[in-house]
Design a protein that fits this description.
Layout (H helix, E strand, L loop, with lengths): L46 H12 L2 H22 L6 H16 L7 H6 L4 H27 L5 H22 L6 H12 L6 H6 L9 H21 L4
Helix pairs in contact: 2-3, 2-5, 3-5, 3-6, 3-7, 5-6, 5-9, 6-9
Length: 239
């Protein structure tokens, strides 16, 4: 070794950066110890977990969850102040509609053209989004009512949650995510002013207010859930 020259380690580590000459366009490699393998990124999230996190952020899932919880609590408080029952079917339907409209804001990304070019299987992801949205709004309502001690029938909550999420999914596919809330909101507004009647047409129009176990209400919710989820999963939100 020439006197005064810097020492060179026996096993030098050459850093490789993306786009560098040794690894054009590739990932950054970690140092390799003597006789060992590349050091893994211990404790870090998996690519699948990172993908789900990014998807949740792009679809405003945290904000939607906060709105669903705040809406359910607000309706419960107003019912207490006004002397109403938190288990009233109209209040329960109102909470579920508010929750579905909050979830509807996440049924599309900021750039739909970019979403369509991404190498992602969108169909199962969209269907899962609608399904989990229904589970979320139903679970929040049941939890708030459990605290109040007055609970709506779980079958009523399941039916309305499924039907309303299918309705907002249909609205997203038809009108875009910005206006997906209009269908459940308009349907509830109409149902509240229609006088109850035993005929099939009236029961279909007021399906979300009918007692659980009513055939017309159940089948209307099933059709809305299946058709809305299928149309949205296949075609996605309208541009």
């Amino acid at each position: 070794m020439t006197p005064g020259a810097p020492e060179v380690p026996a096993n030098p580590v050459v850093p490789v950066v993306p786009g560098g000459p040794a690894n054009p366009g590739g990932p950054v490699r970690r140092p390799v110890p003597d006789g060992g393998r590349p050091v893994p990124d211990a404790g870090g999230p998996t690519p699948y977990a990172r993908g789900l996190t990014l998807y949740a952020r792009s679809r405003h899932v945290p904000a939607s969850l906060a709105v669903v919880v705040i809406g359910a609590v607000a309706v419960w408080v107003l019912a207490r102040i006004g002397g109403g029952s938190p288990g009233d079917s109209r209040l329960s339907a109102l909470v579920l509609v508010a929750g579905a409209t909050a979830v509807a804001s996440g049924l599309g990304g900021q750039d739909l053209a970019l979403d369509r070019t991404a190498a992602i299987r969108w169909m199962p992801r969209r269907a899962a989004h609608v399904l989990l949205g229904g589970v979320l709004i139903g679970a929040v309502l049941l939890a708030v009512q459990a605290v109040s001690g007055q609970q709506t029938a779980p079958a009523f909550v399941v039916r309305d949650s499924a039907g309303l999420m299918g309705l907002v999914a249909l609205g997203a596919a038809w009108c875009g995510r910005q206006y997906a809330w209009t269908l459940p909101f308009a349907w509830l507004s109409f149902a509240l002013v229609v006088p109850p009647a035993p005929d099939a047409a009236t029961q279909v129009l007021t399906w979300m207010l009918l007692p659980s176990g009513t055939a017309a209400g159940t089948w209307t919710a099933v059709v809305l859930a299946v058709v809305g989820t299928a149309v949205y999963a296949v075609g996605g939100p309208r541009r």
